[in-house]
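[Meeting: bench + compute handoff]

Bench side (C.D.) handed over the final construct sequence. Compute side (W.E.) agreed to return the predicted structure before the next meeting so the bench team could plan truncations. Sequence as handed over:
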Amino acid sequence: MTSQNAQPQKNAPKNQNLIIIIALVATTFLCCLFLLCIATGLLFVNYVDLDSIGQEVAIPTATPLAPLPTAIVSENPAHTDKLLQQVRVPSNDPIDLASRLRPELGDVPKVVNDVNPDYQVGDVITFWVGNSDTDENWEIEAELLVKSERLYMWGEVGADVDVDDLRRSANFFDTQIYPTNRAFFGSEWSPGIDSDPRLHVLHARDLGAGVAGYFSSADEASHLINPFSNEKEMFYINIDNTFPGEEFYNGVLAHEFQHMIHWHQDLNETTWLNEGASELAMQLNGLKRSDDSYKPDEEFAENPDIQLNTWPDSEESYAHYGNAYLFMNYFLSRFGEQATQALIANPANSVESVDDVVESLTSGVSGDDVFADWFVANWLDDPSQDDGRWGYPDYDLAPMAVSESIQRLPADGGGAVHQYAADYITIDAEGDVTINFEGTTTTQLAPTSAYSGDWTWWSHRVDSSDTRLTLPVDLTDVEEATLRFRTWYDIEELWDYAYVEVSDDGGATWTLLESDRTTRENPNGNAYGPGYTGVSGESEPAWVLEEIDLSAYSGRPVQIRFEYVTDLAVTQPGMFIDDVEIPEIGYFEDFEDGPGQWRTEGWLLTDNVLSQRWIVQVIETRADGSVQVHRLPVGPDGRGSLSLTDVNGGEDLVLVISALAPVTVEQASYRYHVTSD
C-alpha cells in the first residue's frame, strides 16, 4: 500500500473477481434449477409492483432470488448528498501543518536553497529512497551521469545504468515530453523548492516489485517536515524493471511529470483522475502504455465492474489504470482539448469536476449522461454510431467481459455492482421483450452507523487533504478534565493519520494528544506526531471508546480538535466521531440535535445515508448493424420497466446496469426480471 503515484510493473497479476463472480453465479444457478417451476410467481409479485408499471405482464416461472438488502431509513436521504455538493475540502498544506502541529520546528522554509545548486556531471550526493513493498526508507549515493537542458539524470552508485540510453531519453524528455505536458497540463513548480529549474531523475534499485517509477510530493517539502524528503522536484525510476532509452521508460517519465504538474496545479485532486491524466500524458506524447506483459486496458475489460472514482492499494491497481485512462481518452475524444484541460484544472474533485465541466459546455447534458454514454462506448466501441459518442475514434478497445448471459426467457437475475462501474448482461430474445428492474434506494459512506441515534461526524475522504473539526471548551472551573468519545475509523495505514489536539493559545498552535490507540510509528515520514492510522477494531473497523486526560489544560479555556490528514494517493473510508463527553464540566453531545458549537472545515455531520442512483440501459444492435440505446427509467423507489417491441432473433440485446453514488465504495445490489411474448 503506497501513497506515492507508482506506474505499475509490467508483469502485474490479473484481477480474479470476474472468475469468482461467474463461479458463484453458476453454482447458484445449478442449485436453484430444480426449483424453477415452483416459487417464482409470488416472488415476482413481491418485488415488482405490476400496477405501478401500468401494463399487464404474465407472471412467469423463474428462479427465486434473495431479497434486496433493506433500505437504510433516513428522514431525508438527500441530506448527505447535498452536503457533499456544498462542502469544500481543505488541501494538505505541509507548511501550515508544521507551524500548527510542530511549532518547535520554527519557521520552516518553503524554498530550501537561496541559489541554484547547478550540479555538474560526476557529482555524487545522497538521496533517500523507499521500497513500496516493505515501507522502508534508506539513503543511497548517486552520481550525476547526464545533465540536459531540463533534467539531471542520477544513477545509484554501483548500479548498471547505460549513459547513452540516458542521453537519448533525456533528449526525448527535453524536446517532446517537457513542452507537450506543459502545453496541455500546465507548469510544474519552477524553480521550485531547490531554486533549480532542472528536474531530477534518480535511477535506483529495490523500489518495489510493482513499481516502475514514481513522483513523491514529500520531496516538495523541507526535510524538517518529512525526514525522507530529498527537497527536489524529482522522479524515481526502478532500474530493476524499467530501462532508459526504451519507449516504456519514456512513457513513465511522461506519466510522472504529469503527476508533478498536477500536484502544483490542483493539490488535492482525486487519484483516479490524476492517474487517468498521467496515462493520457503517455498517449499525448505518442508513447505506448502497454506491452506484451502489461495490458491495463485489457485487464479492465476482463472485469468492467471496477469502480472508476476510487483507487485501491497498489497491488490491486493495475486494471484501474486502464479504467481511468479510458475515461480520460473518451472525454478528450468527445469534448476536445480545452474541455479536458478544464476538467483537469477544475478546483472541484472527482465526479463533481466532471459534472461542473460538462454542464458548462453543453445544454441538456449532465455528467451522469456522459458516464452513461461512456458505459455504452466501452461495450460498443463504435464511433460511427450516434455522433461518435459510443466509441473511441482512435483506439481499439478489447471487448468487455459479460457478467451474465441470458439464453432463455423468462429469466430472473441479480447481483451487486460497484459505483461508477457497469455490469453487462446479454439477452437472447425475440418478440416483445419487457425488462423490470429493482435496485437498492440508499447506500452508505462507509459500512457502519452512528454509535448512538442517527447522526455522527465524518472526516470525509479526499487525497492530499486536511479536514478539521473544532470545539471551544471552558475548563476554567475544574482541576481535572477528561475527553471521552466514540470513534470508528479505517485510515490508510502508516500513510494517512487522524489526530486529537488541544490548543490553549487561540488556535495558533496545537498539542497532539495520545491514547492507547494512537501510534508514533512513522515509517514514511507523513505523521506530525501521535495519531490514529489503520483500523479501530482488531482486524476490521469497529466503534471504540477513547478516553484522553485533559487535566494539564484545566483552569483555562481551550479548543479541542479532530484533524484528518491524507497524502497524495489512496484513501480509506476515514473517521467517524460520536458521543463526545467531558464529564467534569457536564458536557455531552450526541449530535442528534445538530452540530452544537462545533466548527467544521471539511467534516460532515451526517446520518451516513446516501441516495443510490441508477443508470440502466439496453443496447439494441439490429441485424443491419444499426444501434439504438434505450434508457430504462428508474424511479425514487429504485424500480423501473422497459418494453421493446418486435425484437428479432438476429438482434443483440445487452442490459447495462450502473450504480452512481459519490464518494462511497459500497456496492449496490439489484435484480431484474426479463420476459418475452
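W.E. noted at the follow-up: The radius of gyration is 27 Å. C.D. will use this when planning the next construct.
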